[in-house]
Amino acid sequence: MSGRISVVPSKNVIAVSFSGTFPALVKEMPGVWEAFLQRQSEIPHVVSPHVRFDISSENRSYQLYTEYIGVEVERFERIPAGMVGLTLPERTYACFTHSGPMDQVQETYRNAFRWLGEEGYRVDESALRFERYDERYTPGFHNRERKENAYDIFIPLL
After folding, report:
1. Which one of 49, 115, 116, 129 has the fewest CB atoms closer than 10 angstroms to its CB?
2. How are strands ordered across the β-sheet holding 129-133?
3. Residue 60's pLDDT band (cuts 50, 70, 90)
4. Could you state, in order of their start, the residue ranges of all structural domains in the chain?
5. Which CATH superfamily includes the segment(s) 4-156?
6. Which residues contact 18 (CB under 8 A, 6 or more apart)?
């Protein structure tokens, strides 16, 4: 596996969020995706309605994770109740594509981090990581076990 390095422009995102331990995330994220998909039409000024983001923040001290499921918007004019607005600043990311059933995604991440280490890149652990979902795979729409599933993983670099 190899990645590509790219500068990603700033993005404004409106999203639903969930915070919890990793086991809680594994259990609850399908419902969070479902809730977001049911409410996505409430979000104004969406850049691309078929492109969704899963943005991750990790508090290593407390082993807590926050996931934001959302879409990019042109501007923050109105944020629907129960949702949040956040801005991903422009920064450099290592980009990887996961392809295949979702039960294989941890292997994709292991390979990505191995490649980053071998190539001498340093991950910015304090920055937000994100995944970009499009027509190739959307949780809640597509079967997790499809061999055709694919989405992009963006790991922030120092």
Report:
1. 49
2. 4-8, 91-99, 150-156, 129-133, 52-59, 64-73, 11-20, 84-88
3. low
4. 4-156
5. Regulatory factor, effector binding domain (3.20.80.10)
6. 25, 28, 29, 32, 66, 67
User: Are 53 and 69 in contact, with CB atoms under 8 Å apart?
Assistant: yes
12 touches 83 (CB < 8 A): no
Can you read off the two tokens belonging to residue 56? Answer: 């991750």
Alpha-carbon gap, residue 107 to 111, rounded angstroms: 6
pLDDT value for 144 = 77
CA atoms within 13 A on the CB side of 24: 9
Q: What angle do CA 85, 156, 46 make, to 5 degrees?
A: 30
Secondary structure (DSSP) of 75-103: --S---TT-EEEEEPPEEEEEEEEES-GG
What burial class does residue 19 get, using C-beta atoms within 10 Å of its C-beta: 0-12 exposed, 13-18 middle, 19+ buried? Answer: middle
d(CA 155, CA 158): 10
Looking at the DSSP assignment, which residues form a beta bridge with residue 86? Answer: 13
